[in-house]
Amino acid sequence: MSDKRVVALSGSIQEAGGSIIRFPLISVQGVPLRNHIATNWDSISAFEAHPSDLLIATYPKAGTTWTQEIVDLLLNDGDQEVCRRAPIAVRMPFLEHFSPPHCPSGLELLKGMPPPRVIKTHLPFQLVPQGFWKNKCKTIYVARNAKDNLVSYFHFDRMNQTQPEPGPWDSYIPKFMEGKLAWGSWYDHVKGYWKEREKNNILYLFYEDMKENPRREVERIMRYLGKSLPDDVISRIVELTSFKAMKENPMVNYTFIPMPVFDQSISPFMRKGEVGDWNNHFTQEQSRVFDEDYEIQMKGSNIPFRINI
Ligand code: PPS
């Protein structure tokens, strides 16, 4: 892949040859999205999914890349070389990713790809282009407990120079609680897909389950994809998608996004990959306030989240 193309993938880039821009958020139907997504909303929502397309949907930082790599390896019978054919962002375009005019968007990458395609999105259920549901596309949703998700998002916003400035940790927590971060409310996101999972045949996974027993979850995804692979291939896929292996894999660790855009010296994309890192971030008081609000926002929902395993 040429340097130009890799740089273009980042979608950050200097709008007029100047410095990197942290894009502001604009509301789309009440959901804050980066300005280039909002201004191109009509073409994103008009995207025509093919019945054979597979959607991987998540709130940002819930385990998207991990799931993408598992899916690619499953679809390619565990062939490591095939799965190194291109960066994950090229193999599986990010549907709503829109950048300044000179950068290829998710839609442009998809235009050049015949179905079946695997497509990444962070859009909440109600904003996903309707064709996915009309065509009964398979969809894998990955949810991660709120506190770890928040911590991961905070560090990502520090290093990704296209996201709005996170500010200090103390003031980041209320932004998450109030749904003011890019892609909006975590609470609405996880509840939205949970509510629709049966009607729309959505495979709803949890990051914590994947950490606890990766093999069980890889097999669950395999069955959902309608595949059946031998035990040794499944073992290889589990190994190739361990945190350690993925951290070292340049096709998934986002080192293909150039340094000024993803500044991995601030915080690596493959940061810790753990359940319970929130314990190292929240003070007792922050945790109490967060939990109190969580009870209210999640009232009546029975999604079995775990904040420690
Ligand atoms: S993004 O930018 O929204 O697509 O990010 P996403 O891939 O959803 O989330 C990144 C977090 O997932 C962790 N990760 C993993 N954890 C365990 N095992 C594997 N293989 C793995 N791959 C990625 C990654 O480290 C980020 O979490 P944190 O807590 O920040 O480490």
From TrEMBL:
GO terms for molecular function: sulfotransferase activity. The keyword Iron does not apply. One of its GO terms (biological process) is catecholamine metabolic process. Pfam families: Sulfotransfer_1. InterPro entries: P-loop_NTPase (IPR027417), Sulfotransferase_dom (IPR000863). Keywords: Transferase. GO terms for cellular component: cytoplasm. It is an enzyme of class 2 (transferase). SUPFAM superfamilies: P-loop containing nucleoside triphosphate hydrolases. Its EC number is 2.8.2.-. Residues 51-301 form the Sulfotransferase domain. Belongs to the sulfotransferase 1 family. This is Sulfotransferase. It comes from Gadus morhua (Atlantic cod). The lineage of its organism: Eukaryota, Metazoa, Chordata, Craniata, Vertebrata. The gene is LOC115530704.
